[in-house]
Design brief:
2 copies of one chain form a homodimer. By secondary structure, chain A is mostly helical. Chain A has helices spanning 7-24, 31-42, 49-56, 60-72, 94-112, and strands at residues 76-80, 88-92. Chain A has a two-stranded antiparallel sheet. The longest helix of chain A has 19 residues, at 94-112. The two termini of chain A are 19 Å apart. Chains A and B meet through helix 1, helix 2 and helix 5 of A and helix 1, helix 2 and helix 5 of B. The structure holds a DNA duplex.
Chain lengths: 116, 116
DNA sequence: GCGGATCAATACGGCTCCGTAACGGTTTTG
DNA sequence: CAAAACCGTTACGGAGCCGTATTGATCCGC
């Protein structure tokens, strides 16, 4: 089932969500970091640095640094691939799942208040 | 008319939109900048630096710097208030309206593809 | 008018992220 | 096995944004 809404509803939703994020002032991820985090949690594993870099069309150091930052916040975890020890497998964490759950709730709550 | 969707739909929408923004690699605004831009275009004018700072719960220099950056991209314009020359009135631009129109289209297009 | 209040902008030091390039560790190839 | 390929990380210089404090301009109360 697809979701339909108007142009102004779409912008209003973005506005309300980003405003809530800014006003809250808690965890504040860049657009790139959020894209990486959501990819890790919504696309099928396994996720490697190289794979994420290709999927997001950015360089590998960008992924490494984003994982450093989000790992510091316990939003993701890293682990060497035992099968090929050159690879790093990026894994989800309880903290990360919790963060995205709240983010999803925020979107839903704001979507519900949209006027046509 | 409100818009209802599921938790995973909400996150999928965020994922697709942020991914498109990152992959595209064009104009990339911080969360704060986007919140400011959307406020300028969706809330009733007039918009002052102080007013925006209060609405977003950030300090005034944050607004000034964001307006500097977005003004450089022609997404917003500044003008002294003739009635009280201490104030600066923030105005919309054609370029800014165009950017938000594309952004809204991106959200709508992605929302349409959501699966239940 | 003059002093204080109010507005936006700027100065400053610090932090984060960027892109390119180089690096060690691991695996594959010939 | 040695050489080449591959993977993730780190080094480096540069750019952008942060918060606090200050400045310069303008308005208001007495």
């Amino acid at each position: 089932m697809s979701v339909e809404f108007s142009h102004s509803q779409a912008l209003r939703l973005l506005h309300d969500v980003s405003l809530a994020q800014v006003r809250e002032g808690g965890v504040d991820l860049s657009n790139r970091q959020l894209a990486i985090l959501l990819t890790i949690y919504m696309d099928l594993p396994p996720h490697t640095v190289r794979g994420l870099a290709a999927k997001l069309n950015v360089t590998k150091p960008v992924i490494t640094r984003a994982l450093d930052a989000m790992g510091e916040m316990d939003l993701v975890a890293r682990r060497r691939d035992p099968a090929d020890r050159r690879n790093v497998i990026v894994q989800r964490t309880v903290q990360g799942a919790l963060y995205l759950e709240k983010l999803g709730d925020l979107v839903i709550a704001n979507a519900r208040t949209l006027q046509a």
